[in-house]
Amino acid sequence: MSKESKKKRKKPKDPATKKTEQQGQSREAKQKLGNKEHEAELFKLQVELVKLQDWVKKTGERIVILFEDRDAAGKGGIIKRILERVSPHAFRLVALPAPTERQKTQIYAQRYIEQLPSGGEIVIFDRSWYNRAGVEHVMGFCTEKEYKQFLKACPAFENFLVNNGVILLKYWLDVSEREQHERFLARIKDPSKRWKLSPMDLESHRRWYDYSRARDAMLAATDTATAPWYIVPSDDKKRARLNCIADILSRIPYQEVPYTPPKLPGRQKAKRAIRSPSRSTGR
Questions:
Q1: Which of 67, 123, 135, 145 could be 117's S-S partner, Cβ–Cβ 3.0 to 4.6 Å?
Q2: Contact between residue 153 and residue 133 where contact means Cβ atoms under 8 Å apart
Q3: Is residue 86 a part of any domain in this protein?
Q4: 88: domain range?
Q5: What are phi and psi of 173, to 5 degrees?
Q6: Distance between CA atoms of 107 and 131, rounded to whole angstroms?
């Protein structure tokens, strides 16, 4: 038997299969959003967020939008785009640090309840009470009893919020194993992003399947008719941003508040010009 025949030869692809793959790659390339298209669509949605803001301030509505995800799924980018053109007096971001020793002795939901909106406010939780169903459970920061109690009590807590007039929206950003891996590598290589990679992030990379099981259990226990979960595929960050913001707007029955442009008053006449001392910052 010749050496050539001993070598494993690759089976040639069927022409139809090759053509199908090329078409699929072509469709994928066409589906990618360019920066101009993305920014144009995003601006339209941000204008609607301003209209939502005006409606909430006028009606006194209370809205809670919470985001949960795996590390590097793109949650921060979506939140940043939501807050980019709205008032911090109407939209408030809550990203709580680890609980203090005093807070550890409180009822678990207590520090989150303190952050709930008053009338005319929209509160965005960058991670929320669902920490107990995710990182606290997987990393052993809570007991098994505390974890099970949370899954059992959470739907009742959220029903209480909704029944008291709070609009509650819950979003899970779903990133694939491969994409998360690539984003972690990019953070390691990019000096401007290294701060995003904490020891906890590295552990979440190692324990992918532990977090997968925790996510599945969380969704099964807390996806209710009153407070359902909405899943946002986030491998494509640009589409994830647009889809998520559009979905938020579609689930809140806001209306545009009529706007009357103000008339700028004329400047007062200065009797004597007064100049403030100025210092140049140039070199």
A1: 123
A2: no
A3: yes
A4: 34-176+214-250
A5: -90, 120
A6: 14
Coil, helix or strand at residue 37? helix
- Specify the DSSP class assigned to residue 198: -
CA distance 222 to 215: 11
| DSSP helix/strand/coil, 254 | coil
pLDDT of residue 278: 67
| Residue whose pair of structure tokens reads 């078409």 in the numeric block | 23
The C-alpha R_g of the chain, in whole angstroms, comes to 25
- DSSP-assigned beta bridge partners for residue 251: none
- For residue 90, what is the domain's CATH number? 3.40.50.300
**Domain presence at residue 232:** yes
What DSSP state is assigned to residue 272?
Answer: S
The domain total for the chain is 1
Residue 232: which H helix or E strand, with range? strand 229-233
In a domain, 143, yes or no: yes
Could you tell me if residue 63 is inside a domain?
A: yes
Q: pLDDT tens digit string along 85-138?
A: 999 999 999 999 999 999 999 999 999 999 999 999 999 999 999 999 999 999
Average pLDDT estimate for 151-165: 98
- Given a cut of 70, whether residue 176 has pLDDT beyond it is yes
3 state SS of 92: strand
